[in-house]
Amino acid sequence: MKAIQKRVIIENVKPEVDGGRFPAKRAVGETVAVEADIFVDGHDALSARLLHRKAGEPEWRIQPMSFLVNDLWRASFTADELGHYEFTVVAWIDRFETWRNQLEKKAVAGQDVSVELMEGAGLVQSAADRAGGEDADRLKETADFLTSEAPLPERTRKALGRDLLRLMAASPDLSALTEYGKILPLRAEPVKALFSAWYEMFPRSCADDDPGRHGTFRDCIERLPYVADMGFDVLYLPPIHPIGRSHRKGRNNTTKPGPDDPGSPWAIGAGEGGHKAIHPELGTLEDFRELVSEAKKLDIDIAMDIAFQCSPDHPYVGEHPEWFRQRPDGSIQYAENPPKKYQDIYPFDFESEHAESLRQELLSVVQYWIDQGIRIFRVDNPHTKPLRFWEWLIAECKREHPDTVFLAEAFTRPKTMYRLAKAGFTQSYTYFTWRNLKWEIEQYFEELTQTRVKEFFWPNLWPNTPDILPEFLQIGERPAFILRLMLAATLSSNYGIYGPAFELCVNEPREPLSEEYRDSEKYEIAHWNLNEPHSLRPFIKRINRIRRENPALQGTRNLMFHPVEREEILCFSKYTDDFSNIILVAANLDPHHTHSAWVKLPFEEMGFEAEPTFQMHDLVSDARYLWHGDYNYVELDPRVVPVQIFRLRRRMRTESDFDYFM
Amino acid sequence: MKAIQKRVIIENVKPEVDGGRFPAKRAVGETVAVEADIFVDGHDALSARLLHRKAGEPEWRIQPMSFLVNDLWRASFTADELGHYEFTVVAWIDRFETWRNQLEKKAVAGQDVSVELMEGAGLVQSAADRAGGEDADRLKETADFLTSEAPLPERTRKALGRDLLRLMAASPDLSALTEYGKILPLRAEPVKALFSAWYEMFPRSCADDDPGRHGTFRDCIERLPYVADMGFDVLYLPPIHPIGRSHRKGRNNTTKPGPDDPGSPWAIGAGEGGHKAIHPELGTLEDFRELVSEAKKLDIDIAMDIAFQCSPDHPYVGEHPEWFRQRPDGSIQYAENPPKKYQDIYPFDFESEHAESLRQELLSVVQYWIDQGIRIFRVDNPHTKPLRFWEWLIAECKREHPDTVFLAEAFTRPKTMYRLAKAGFTQSYTYFTWRNLKWEIEQYFEELTQTRVKEFFWPNLWPNTPDILPEFLQIGERPAFILRLMLAATLSSNYGIYGPAFELCVNEPREPLSEEYRDSEKYEIAHWNLNEPHSLRPFIKRINRIRRENPALQGTRNLMFHPVEREEILCFSKYTDDFSNIILVAANLDPHHTHSAWVKLPFEEMGFEAEPTFQMHDLVSDARYLWHGDYNYVELDPRVVPVQIFRLRRRMRTESDFDYFM
User: Fold this and answer.
1) Which terminus in chain B has less CB density within 10 A, N or C?
2) Claim to verify: residue A145 and residue A19 sit in the same structural domain
3) How far is B603 from chain A (nearest CA, A)?
4) Phi, psi of B102, deg, nearest 5
């Protein structure tokens, strides 16, 4: 059929990332709701189908789409295995349904429909010709009956009957099928890619028994119950490789290290080896594998740091000088941000003639650690390496290991961050770390969770990192730590903290206006007293339990902000698709003063049928409140707890619930 | 070069409609600002170029793009001829600029840059190899000098000098050029497509001298000065073809016409002819051509109605029964919306086997009237004919006649309206007719003018049509007519009224709750007293003059709403790109009561440098006001005039402007 004769239009199919150039992402097991604008000139009835399949499957699976409103159609499928899916949409004019609708209206109006029945008989006869076996016979019979001598009301009843509707639906006329034209990709990611709680710690600071001793993987194994008890399920370690000695940085990033200064773990590579080696003072590969397997027993994944850069002592420098940029004086180009020089770091030259062997080697680094049982990688500064390199590397890894997760540590401009996510990074660091005011939190999270960004960018929120002690924590003290933790843990289903600095509320900067920690672990071994009474440990444990127990907090696209007429109070909810679990968070963003406000909830969007009375169960304090009507009161004292995490319990017991009511 | 090695990313090029499937639209002579997100990993400097050409030109014209902010780049070109344009974007890493930036910072910091100069010499030498003639010599010389024995500061100066920058820019290294990959289409439309004032009238009601006589084209010629004096430049006539007699509708749409009832002009076709014929009572083809040419002298275009449907008496019915749907009883399918029957109308069957000859015939109808000098077509109910048919027909017409304009009369669901605009309709009727409250006006016009819709959908606003006497006009009376006229004329650069019913404030519905006019001209000949004292004629004349004198009102994408803390007062501005013409409109949406409010203007976005004092010149009343500071007061009495149209005059005279100041 000529394209000009296809009357149905299919537009705006979602989820679609950059016209299908990149896959949309869902966690495995998640429902994928596919929507499309489908319409036709005039008033003909339409039918539409979602076609979907695991990539590589020869046949489409077919799902009828439902009309919602305003030319919008929807159908869903479940991405029940890791890996790539494909989907598209087709639609056609449903001539039988069109005819049937009109027949019904005419019959109701008492008009003579004998000619209509002749027309219908033609449609039914065509369906009989398309159908096979028994259906064909029954359709043929019906067609004959519609034009028979039987009384008109009887024939009309037959024409409008469910039997015929079912038979006709089974043999649709697809001769004028419109195809969307594009096959859209989607990737099913591991569940932990969507729902995870990260804990970052320096292994060398884990020698709890002996201040000053270099911690080992064995010490990390000792530390595991502490991490697991708080409820974290990803333990992220800064680089564990041998550390360079040339231009090593001393304490507080000075350029004159003492003889015992351990150096920055990100200055990777020394005589003992490079990206596939382990820093001898941490232990052996066997120790590391034991750490991975002991962690696994506590449902903790070890996340590796991937920092593709070298110290001048890295074996690559001697073995593969062609992977670095040679300067005209024969030296190798170190990293710089003029006039600053980072002589302890050699970046790779991805534009070298030998870039292909470089790329293969870097891929082999990731694959090496995959072979050691690692599935989660936190990638250092990916925005300083080519975007298409990452697209290739992550695709290569995921081909064999679709269960891998890559977190992009790209604190850079938004478009680069989004492109990295499109190129394959599963999770991304965000600007959350600096978003403190209500309007900026709302604006940013609307962008992340309600715009097209939600299809590919999965935020992982960090209130702090070894590089960033935000001003808000410096001045807000303990209430600020609690507030930021609770926001991170509830705004996104993925979040993390850099500890023990976080739970111990460490907030001294290297100097005023600096976001660097004083005596940063990046340059020295720290010793922490994990049992300090002001530790947030019990509090964090409770928050992580609330997350585990409430499915609404295990997704991020399900975020809805609520209007509150007070700038200090942020209010939002998260909910499961069926509204069986609704969590309402009310946060006082001012860590110094008590604030109160009236909160307005959009009951209709939350699936309530009428103005309800319901119970609000604060999962933090375990207090329960009775709420009623549009506006309800909250008051938050940051010295007690700056955030309430309510579970909205809709079913109120009444007198009729009790035995003696009868 | 392998794709993986291309480091530059180009995304989100605008204007782009549905990934380039449809052209964006601009009026001929308008500046086309092309924007793109362009970025690269790391900190390298970029260069980007806009490539553009008239479709069919063999060579691209090339425009350097400028970096704006946040990875956004922009360049512009002028679409200075009617028809199709193409454009795309390319970008590359500017290695010389990257190197130069770093050199400058290092030199300023007093670092030794001798190795840097060697590196630079290499870049300059490569440019010399690419360059021709004199440039090559000068580059070669410079490369030598940079590595010469001359003092370092002298060589550094040379390296950073403007001469070298210019030479290097002339011979860029395009070896790693990234192309956007898509060539995007754009169509330059006639100026009147973007800026027009329409007047609709029934020719048969133009016999001013003789109530009851059937008006003729000669009467229309007499009426032209009246229309021109009010300032309209498009005169739109309902269909002028012979009117069918079978099932003709009588006065007020009754099914029992009197013998003299003239019938609806949309029931096209009778013994006298069809879509290429003229209703004998209106005159001859020669009369019509004279009307067209007399109108042209007054800068008025005659707009034809294209209604692709037939009365049962249309010659097509006998000559081409294959273009209609035959029912099993041998009858032809008339239009219906069950249980309603429109037996006076036969729709075409675009799905007939003979649709190709039907399409060709319908195209020939439009071409016939193009040959009679018509360039503007108002298309009746395009949403009841296939969307791809219109895409084809309009493209065919525009190929030879890019100066044609098609207005879609599609009062239907939004996605169909938008698709018609994408498919080629130049202008579109809108929901403005029913948008009366502030929030609904703001929401709708934000959608039309600030979202992607603005690239293809050009609204033509009608406060009334022969089919629609909106409730607001029925109950609001004269102030409502003035208000709706002024909103239509200022919110969009294209607007129209159905007169003389509009300027005479006719507001009686056929029955309560109906939007049909009582004694509608659609079914009878009307006689109007154009000189009634309450006529809005002088007022309309003033509004149209204000539109002609203020370029800000000659575009629609330049609309900005301003916050006013009063639901009854709507405030918006329109401005030229250079802010030389800024129009502020303040409208009282309540036709019954006076309201006042404080208006806040966003001075920064309007190009003011500091908090200004400026003159507000109300172009309606000719009153002048002095405004100062962020908030200023407006008060609007609907019985005087419900709208003020201020021209913001920025230059305030002070004492120093006067001779005696010295």
Assistant:
1) C
2) no
3) 22
4) -70, -40
Residue A109 forms contact with B (CB below 8 Å): yes
Q: Count H helices and E strands in chain A, helices first.
A: 15, 30
pLDDT digits (tens, 9 = 90+) for A444-502: 999 999 999 999 999 999 999 999 999 999 999 999 999 999 999 999 999 999 999 99
Inter-residue contact B123 to B102 (CB < 8 Å): no
* Residue B162: strand, helix, or coil: helix
Q: Could you report the per-residue pLDDT of B616-650, keeping only the tens digit for each?
A: 999 999 999 988 888 899 999 999 999 999 999 87
Residues of B in contact with A384 (CB under 8 A): 41-42
Per the structure block, which two tokens stand in for B620? 């309606």
Q: Examine the domain organization and report whether B184 and B149 are in the same domain.
A: no
A13 in the same domain as A79: yes
Looking at the structure, tell me whether residues B178 and B58 fall in a common domain: yes
Contacts of A318 (CB under 8 A, 6+ apart): none
The tokens of B349 are what? 């069957």
Does B54 share its domain with B142? no
Computed over every residue of chain A, the mean pLDDT equals: 95
Residues B48 and B181 in one domain: yes
For the cut 60, the answer to whether the pLDDT of residue B661 exceeds it is no
Beta-carbon separation of A41 and B386 below 8 A: yes
Whether A42 and B384 lie within 8 Å, measured CB to CB = yes
B124-133 pLDDT, tens per residue?
Answer: 999 999 998 9
Q: Decide if B388 and A4 are in contact by the 8 Å CB cutoff.
A: yes
Q: Which domain holds residue A137?
A: 113-168
Q: Looking at chain B from residue 390 to 449, which residues have their Cβ under 8 Å from any Cβ of chain A?
A: 392, 413-416, 419
Q: Which two tokens stand for residue B656?
A: 């120093």
Spell out the residues 6+ positions from residue B543 whose beta carbon is closer than 8 angstroms to its own: B231, B485, B486, B489, B620, B645
| Contacting residues of B for A337, CB less than 8 Å apart | 43
Tell me the mean pLDDT in the region B263-276: 97
Average pLDDT over residues B583-600: 96
Domain count, chain B: 3
Do both A596 and A655 map to the same domain? yes
In this structure, what token pair is assigned to residue A507?
């907030």
In a shared domain, residues B656 and B585: yes
